[in-house]
Amino acid sequence: MRILFITATRLGDAVLSTGILNTLLQQYPHACITVACGPVAAGLFQHMPGLDRVVVMQKRRYDLHWLDLWKDCARTRWDMTVDLRGSGVSFFLRSGRRLIMRGGRRPGRRVDHLGAVMGLSPAPLPTVWFNAADQKIAAAILPPSTPGAPVIALGPTANWNGKIWPTARYLPLWQQLAAAYPHARPAIFYGPGPQEAELARPVLNALPHAIDAGGRFALTETAAMLARCALYVGNDSGLMHLAAAAGTPTLGLFGPSRASEYAPSGPLARWVEAPGPEGHAPIAGLSIERVATAALALLRETQP
Question: What are the sequence ranges of the domains in the chain?
Answer without folding.
Answer: 2-117, 132-302
